[in-house]
Write a structure and sequence with these properties.
Elements: H1 5-15, H2 21-29, E1 33-34, E2 37-38, H3 39-50, H4 58-76, E3 82-86, H5 92-104, E4 113-117, E5 132-135, E6 141-144, H6 156-162, E7 170-173, E8 188-193, H7 198-208, E9 212-220, H8 229-242, E10 247-248, E11 254-257
Parallel strand pairs: 3-4, 3-8, 4-7, 8-9
Antiparallel strand pairs: 1-2, 5-6, 9-11, 10-11
Helix pairs in contact: 3-5, 4-5, 7-8
């Protein structure tokens, strides 16, 4: 039996402390291109330009998730519709998406790309977001969350600077689902959900799914993140309720392609 998520993360950190991560990173991704650009260059440039850092074994996971995101985004460029990211943080993946679209269209300046974030970090937690339960010593159980409200807060101005090469991208500051109602009424070709928690994940699915262009895809970054079980709970609940088929990827992501 696996230990609880918090302990498991400690074990994985320890296991990889002296592992040759950079060597494995280069072996895994060295021969992959997105459009005409090596994926390693695309990934590294977007990390540096956005000021995003990741340590230890998470480098491999971040790169794998970024590769999947890049492949689905590149695929979506053949579909008419808007593209949106919910949960921007420092702008790493938004910037990468911009660079991918510019490979397809050298004149691309961000038009049609929407970025949504509160810029105030995580919202209040739902019980479904608890990574585990802990005995209080009184016979009662209390939820244990991987992160606290406000974690991941990033100034809007920092993301605007990250996206300076794509000035026509529209940044929407606000909480999901309320901010979604301010979006233009249109079809969507690509939706990236990276909001970690149950309620905003569910809000994104309820808003975007009926508005997807045929063949468009919704990519959930938190389908099987041990620290964010609410992302799985919302996705599973929604897709089961509506009988939507989807693919779960070993990277921890899930993808729904609109019919």
């Amino acid at each position: 039996m696996l230990p609880d998520p918090l302990k498991f993360q400690e074990i994985i950190d320890e296991v990889h402390k002296n592992a040759p991560l950079e060597k494995n990173y280069n072996i895994l991704f060295r021969n992959i291109t997105i459009g005409s650009k090596p994926f390693l260059d695309l990934f590294s440039d977007s990390m540096v330009q956005s000021g995003t850092t990741v340590g230890g074994w998470k480098l491999l996971r971040r790169a794998l998730r970024a590769l999947n995101l890049a492949q689905y985004y590149d695929y979506s460029l053949g579909i008419d519709g808007g593209r949106v990211e919910c949960g921007v943080f420092k702008g790493f993946s938004a910037l990468m998406m911009g660079h991918i679209q510019r490979l397809n269209d050298p004149q691309f300046r961000g038009n049609g790309l929407h970025l949504i974030d509160s810029f105030e970090g995580l919202s209040e937690m739902h019980p479904a977001d608890a990574a585990m339960e802990r005995d209080t010593g009184t016979g009662e159980k209390e939820p244990v969350y991987g992160y606290k409200k406000g974690h991941f807060a990033t100034p809007l101005e920092a993301v605007q600077e990250t996206m300076r090469d794509f000035p026509e991208a529209t940044i929407h500051k606000g909480w999901i689902p309320e901010v979604l109602e301010t979006l233009p009424e249109q079809k969507w070709a690509f939706v990236h959900i990276d909001v970690d928690l149950y309620e905003p994940t569910l809000g994104c699915l309820e808003y975007f799914t009926p508005r997807m262009a045929s063949g468009g895809c919704i990519l959930n970054d938190d389908f099987s993140s041990p620290m964010f079980p609410g992302g799985f709970a919302a996705w599973s609940e929604f897709c089961t309720r509506h009988n939507f088929p989807y693919v779960a990827i070993d990277s921890g992501q899930a993808v729904l392609i609109a019919r």
